[in-house]
């Protein structure tokens, strides 16, 4: 059976997947345990114990049967005298009496392949792959752990593990060093605020675990209850502070060391795996063995690891083997070793023998009572010969705060020592810093200006930082020489998408699009997902191409912009999805030359990649670096809100919504700076098509992202107001517009003020590059005198702007007429006035002039009404199918989302039904009924019309929210209404089959009771109306008599019903209304400003004339578009194109405003108390580090002082010897130490 590859496994929102019994049913088929099969008598137990540690009665008959072979065996061996069988202890572990989350455990044979175990831990148990493994060796059993060792484990080891994302591996038992590590991890988890959790793994011998029988269950335990005894002495119980336990079974009971071989093999296997998410790192996982104290048997374990080239860090002073190794490396290492002797090789033998003798002395010094000294000496010699892999940690010379730095330096040295291909140790040190996410070390030691970094040095670490979501390193690399244009090719961008985790939403979306492409290009070759592998894996990986990314972005962004990445794939002119799929299939089967090209917009592409994965800090950094910051922030907001709608996980959904709101705030903030800097440029910024975002504008992206806060900005509302009023002054009174509407020649008078477009154009004639830019921004986009379509080109000789296709200036009469009638406010006013006339005509027809069917009717007024509705239908058809610049797909989506469009369709359908019915005598009354209901629908349409009003608009929004509350109220009311109505009818009338009376008495009358209409005479007094008890008459329709025996119960039910409905439910509804009003009132203005955009766009696109005269505008448009072939340019007010110098200036100006905004926000953040505390903490850490350096200098001075004393003593001895010698005669007496110091002091002064 195959196990899924852990390299493609991932976790969403940091959650650990829970594995059920069914999902782990494969474990006994692969994982085995060991059982003793040969009873080898222990000579010290009188035949009661086997050398495996089990009692005789615990062995089966097979193990006890072969007495002859048993007698021949003197020493029990696990490989020979035990056999394997399916494991019977695995699953989840629940420590009884503790609030700790469950742990995982597994009983496994000592010869189990490490790859299977590592896959189980990462893929099935959900443990995050480590960036470092620290294996704590020694300090087992009841040995007492020294205080300073506890501090090193608590402050040094745990802090280093937390900052690097490390695994700590110990025996996992509640004794010795492993207990200290568990307590340190527990205390750190309780005090730390970081979301990174330390993973602790216990590898213990199965036979040593106390109460291990509680874990045995052949089907697996989900969850196994494990009781830990609270005793004063340390028992080998499982520690509650570990996430996973590997219980190694070698067939022995009560004996240590059986797990050492498996543990060494597992550590060696981990050391050849790659760091990072999905194994995407550029270095192997560092594995460090930390030796604390230890028995002599630890030397064998150390010898195995050193042969596998695993480094060791020894805590000298902790006792045991640690002190022996420290003594060997410090005192024996200085002995000269002769590598070549005389011709007989005696020199080498003598030097080796001398080394062995010195090592033997050290072994005897530290372990005087050990009997098997020869074996210890051999292992100590092996350790000494591999001394390059062993590093010493002194408790006197180094503090606990230097422990992490010591670990990093150990790995940096060893990695460079064994990697001959490395140019310098700095590259490997940088890779370690990236793997451990220590940007502080990288800044202070690697990027301090003393090292020159090339592009080749930073390329692989940059990929590691991107894939593993380390934005600080990405920022650091881009600040220190990494050119993003050289780095990001289309191939590397595809590789980034292929590195996505399987359990992410974006991965599933890309996988679905990949399946579509494979089904088209290779029909029948694609197979659905299985539990063990995906089709991408079967083909050697996730073969995501840019086409899948483009399709996913199209799903998320919709028709707001054109498809992404079509240019490198050469799909610009292909509109059919099927043709595009076939073309991409051919391109990918060919040489794929596009992959070697540079990405056209690298920062925007990386921004999209980070947003799709919900990488908050990474996405914000890429937004800071990308072009068109306002549109980029709105695009990120759009993507995240669409993703949150598709995501099913609550935590991930909330984080996406928070990040989307953050991007909307960024767009709002940057645009605020732009609007304060230059109003006209900020208006241009909102309506300019973006080449980066495939022709989208800020307004289009904001409406697609539901960015209500952005639309509430004064600058956006000012633009909308300017578009709304056209070329008229915004201060124009409404009565002037109404008067001019009915008397059009007044537009040529001074009754209405118009903006002086001509004067503005003369003032903005370009005299310099700066002025010509301002003039362009001020005059082109928002002049409604004519529909302008400007195309700015560069002139290299004159450095000026030439506006092509500029229409000629029209005569005053035509120009002023267009300025008035082409303004959206005029169109709105005309539609409102004519709509009121339409409602009056409709009411007149229904109330006064609604005649009989033909030939008596309809009347002339009714025919006028029919024609009026016909023009309304024509306008709906035009808006649906003939609105230029918008696709039919977008219109369908708009129709599906817009409530008022559905309302219009209902009104038109009801009118057509009523019209058809009223033409026939048989359905005349039904037709009149339909038309009456339709009149109500048309009248309620006024709510949408007046949503543009500043005072009425927010109140309409509040009413809409309250209608939702009414539905909840009606649900509770219907429950009580049904309960009371049925009971009341059944108690008062024993038999009444008339459905009309039943409906009225069960639903209608109880509903009227709420408003006080209670017929007491029918309930509590004697019935005086004529009635009958004859069943035949009752069935014929006669009124039945009331039952009087249960009047008292009816009264009680009425009291309860009125109490609940009139007091409880009505007050509940009032409370709901009050709550809704208080919540919506704060944001109602924002909602109204957001909806105002849609209304302005609607009336901006409408013809100038209102129904029924709009038919004239429809004929004019038909002739203009389909006969004269004149394209529409009115949409350029909302989507303009800038090219050349103007586009670059606008982009530069926006970038400057973004930098100002970021600088301002940084100052505000630094001024916060929390940031001040962080800076103070950093300063304190710096002082502590300097004090540690001073302590190091002090230690060095002490060593130097001792050496000086030795030199002084030697010189004194030489001086005395020479003085006593007769061969040398001095010309003067020797100086004394006192005289020298005195003369030195006198000379100094």
List the quaternary state of the chains: single chain
**How far apart lie the N and C ends?**
87 Å
Average pLDDT metric: 79
Largest sheet: 10 strands, mixed
Shape: extended
Lateral strand order in the biggest sheet: 8-3-4-9-7-6-5-10-11-12
Radius of gyration from the alpha-carbon trace, in angstroms: 43 Å
Number of helices: 50
- Tally the beta strands: 14
GO molecular function: calcium-activated cation channel activity; ligand-gated calcium channel activity
Membrane topology: Multi-pass membrane protein
Domain Ion transport: 835-1084
Protein name: Transient receptor potential cation channel subfamily M member 4-like
Structural summary, described in words:
It is a single chain. With 1245 residues, the chain is mainly α. Helices cover 56% and strands 6% of the residues. The protein contains 50 helices and 14 strands. The strands form three sheets. The protein has a ten-stranded mixed β-sheet with strand order 8-3-4-9-7-6-5-10-11-12, with helices on both faces. It has a two-stranded antiparallel ribbon with strand order 1-2. Helix 14 runs parallel beside helix 16. The longest helix is centred in the last third of the chain and has 55 residues, at 1047-1101. The termini are far apart. The model is unreliable at 1-19, 334-350, 416-422, 524-541, 757-807 and 1235-1245 (pLDDT under 50).
């Amino acid at each position: 059976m195959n196990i899924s590859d852990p390299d493609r496994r991932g976790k969403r929102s940091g959650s650990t997947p829970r594995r059920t019994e069914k999902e782990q049913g494969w474990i006994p088929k692969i994982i085995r345990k060991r059982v003793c099969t040969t009873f080898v008598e222990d000579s010290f137990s009188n035949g009661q114990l086997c050398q495996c540690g089990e009692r005789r009665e615990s062995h089966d008959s097979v193990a006890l049967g072969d007495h002859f072979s048993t007698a021949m065996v003197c020493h029990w061996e696990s490989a020979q005298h035990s056999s394997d069988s399916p494991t019977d202890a695995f699953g989840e572990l629940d420590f009884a009496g503790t609030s700790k989350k469950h742990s995982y455990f597994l009983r496994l044979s000592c010869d189990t392949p490490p790859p299977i175990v590592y896959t189980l831990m990462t893929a099935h148990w959900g443990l995050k792959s480590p960036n470092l493994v620290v294996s704590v060796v020694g300090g087992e059993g009841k040995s007492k752990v020294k205080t300073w060792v506890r501090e090193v484990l608590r402050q040094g080891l745990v802090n280093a593990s937390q900052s690097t994302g490390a695994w700590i591996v110990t025996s996992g038992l509640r004794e010795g060093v492993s207990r200290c590590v568990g307590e340190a991890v527990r205390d750190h988890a309780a005090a730390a605020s970081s979301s990174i959790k330390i993973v602790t793994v216990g590898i213990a011998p199965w036979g040593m675990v106390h109460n291990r029988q509680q874990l045995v269950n052949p089907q697996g335990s989900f969850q196994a209850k494990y009781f830990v005894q609270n005793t004063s002495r340390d028992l080998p119980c499982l520690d509650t502070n570990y996430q996973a336990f590997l219980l190694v079974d070698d067939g022995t009971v009560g004996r240590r060391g059986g797990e050492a071989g498996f543990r060494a093999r597992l550590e060696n296997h981990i050391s050849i795996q790659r760091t990072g998410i999905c194994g995407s790192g550029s270095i192997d996982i560092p594995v460090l063995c930390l030796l604390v104290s230890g028995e002599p048997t630890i030397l064998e374990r150390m010898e195995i690891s050193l042969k596998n080239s695993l480094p060791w860090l020894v805590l000298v002073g902790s006792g045991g083997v640690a002190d022996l190794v420290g003594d060997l490396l410090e005192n024996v290492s200085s002995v000269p070793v002769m590598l070549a002797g005389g011709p007989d090789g005696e020199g080498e033998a003598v030097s080796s023998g001398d080394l062995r003798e010195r090592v033997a002395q050290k072994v005897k010094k530290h372990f005087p009572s050990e009997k098997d000294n020869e074996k210890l000496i051999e292992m100590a010699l092996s350790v000494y010969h591999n001394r390059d892999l062993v590093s010493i940690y002194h408790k006197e010379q180094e503090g606990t705060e230097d422990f992490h730095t010591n670990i990093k330096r150990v790995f940096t040295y060893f990695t460079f020592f064994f990697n001959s291909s490395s140019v310098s140790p700095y590259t490997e040190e940088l890779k370690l810093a990236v793997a451990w996410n220590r940007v502080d070390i990288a800044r202070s030691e690697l990027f301090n200006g003393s090292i020159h970094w090339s592009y080749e040095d930073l390329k692989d670490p940059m990929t590691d930082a991107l894939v593993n979501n380390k934005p600080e390193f990405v920022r650091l690399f881009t600040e220190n020489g990494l050119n993003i244009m050289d780095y990001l090719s289309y191939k590397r961008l595809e590789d980034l998408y292929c590195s996505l985790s399987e359990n992410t939403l974006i991965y599933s979306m890309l996988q679905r699009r990949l399946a579509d492409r494979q089904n088209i290009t290779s029909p029948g070759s694609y197979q659905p997902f299985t539990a063990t592998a995906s089709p991408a894996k079967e083909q050697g990986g996730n073969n995501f191409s840019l086409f899948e990314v483009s399709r996913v972005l199209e799903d998320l962004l919709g028709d707001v912009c054109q498809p992404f990445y079509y240019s490198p794939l050469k799909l610009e002119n292909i509109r059919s999805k099927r043709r595009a799929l076939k073309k991409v299939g051919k391109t990918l089967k060919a040489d794929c030359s596009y992959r070697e090209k540079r990405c056209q917009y690298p920062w925007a592409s990386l921004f999209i990649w980070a947003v799709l994965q919900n990488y908050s800090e990474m996405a914000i950094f890429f937004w800071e670096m990308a072009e068109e910051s306002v549109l980029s922030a709105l695009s990120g907001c759009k993507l995240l809100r669409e993703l949150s709608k598709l995501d099913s996980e609550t935590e991930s959904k909330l984080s996406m919504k928070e990040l989307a709101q953050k991007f909307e705030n960024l767009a709002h903030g940057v645009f605020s700076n732009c609007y304060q800097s230059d109003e006209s440029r900020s208006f241009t910024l909102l309506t300019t098509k973006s080449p980066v975002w495939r022709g989208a504008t800020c307004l289009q992206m904001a409406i697609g992202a539901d960015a209500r806060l952005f639309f509430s900005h004064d600058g956006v509302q000012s633009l909308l107001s300017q578009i709304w009023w056209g070329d008229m002054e915004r201060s124009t009174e409404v009565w002037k517009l109404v008067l001019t509407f009915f008397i059009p020649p007044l537009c040529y008078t001074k009754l209405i003020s118009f903006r002086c477009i001509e004067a503005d154009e003369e003032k903005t004639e370009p005299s310099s590059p700066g002025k010509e830019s301002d003039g362009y921004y001020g005059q082109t986009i928002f002049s409604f005198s004519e529909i302008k379509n400007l195309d700015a080109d560069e002139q290299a000789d004159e450095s000026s702007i030439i506006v092509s296709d500029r229409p000629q200036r029209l005569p005053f009469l035509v120009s002023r007429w267009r300025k008035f009638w082409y303004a959206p406010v005029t169109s709105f006013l005309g539609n409102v006035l004519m709509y009121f006339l339409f409602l009056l005509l409709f009411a007149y027809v229904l109330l006064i002039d609604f005649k009989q069917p033909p030939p008596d009717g309809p009347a002339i007024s009714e025919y006028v009404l029919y024609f009026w509705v016909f023009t309304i239908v024509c306008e709906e058809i035009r808006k649906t199918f003939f609105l230029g610049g918008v696709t039919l797909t977008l219109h369908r989506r708009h129709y599906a989302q817009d409530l008022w469009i559905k309302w219009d369709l209902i009104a038109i359908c009801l009118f057509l039904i009523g019209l058809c019915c009223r033409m026939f005598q048989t359905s005349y009354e039904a037709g009149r009924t339909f038309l009456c209901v339709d009149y109500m629908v048309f009248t309620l349409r006024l709510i949408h019309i007046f949503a543009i009003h500043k005072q009425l608009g927010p109140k309409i929004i509040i009413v809409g929210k309250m209608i939702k509350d009414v539905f909840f109220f009606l649900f509770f009311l219907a429950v009580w209404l049904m309960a009371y109505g049925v009971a009341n009818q059944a108690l008062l009338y024993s038999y009444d089959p008339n459905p009309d009376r039943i409906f009225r008495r069960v639903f209608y009358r109880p509903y009227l009771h709420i408003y006080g209409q209670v017929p007491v005479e029918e309930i509590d007094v004697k019935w005086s109306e004529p009635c009958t008890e004859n069943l035949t008459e009752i069935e014929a329709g006669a009124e039945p008599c009331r039952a009087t025996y249960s009047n008292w119960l009816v009264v009680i039910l009425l009291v309860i019903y009125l109490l609940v409905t009139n007091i409880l439910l009505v007050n509940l509804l009032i409370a709901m209304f009050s709550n809704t009003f208080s919540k919506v009132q704060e944001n109602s203005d924002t909602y109204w400003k957001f909806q105002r955009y849609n209304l302005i766009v609607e009336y901006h696109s409408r013809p100038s004339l209102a129904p029924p005269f709009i038919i004239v505008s429809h004929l004019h448009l038909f002739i203009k578009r389909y006969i004269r072939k004149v394209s529409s340019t009115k949409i350029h007010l909302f989507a303009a194109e800038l090219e050349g110098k103007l586009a670059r200036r606008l982009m530069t100006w926006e970038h400057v405003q973004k930098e100002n905004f970021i600088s301002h926000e940084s100052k505000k953040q630094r001024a916060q108390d929390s940031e001040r505390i962080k800076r103070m903490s950093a300063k304190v850490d710096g002082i502590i580090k300097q004090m540690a350096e001073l302590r190091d200098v002090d230690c060095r001075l002490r060593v130097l002082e001792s050496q000086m004393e030795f030199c002084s003593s030697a010189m004194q001895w030489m001086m005395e010897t020479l003085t006593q010698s007769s061969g040398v005669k001095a010309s003067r007496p020797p100086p004394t130490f006192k005289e020298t110091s005195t003369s030195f002091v006198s000379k100094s002064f």
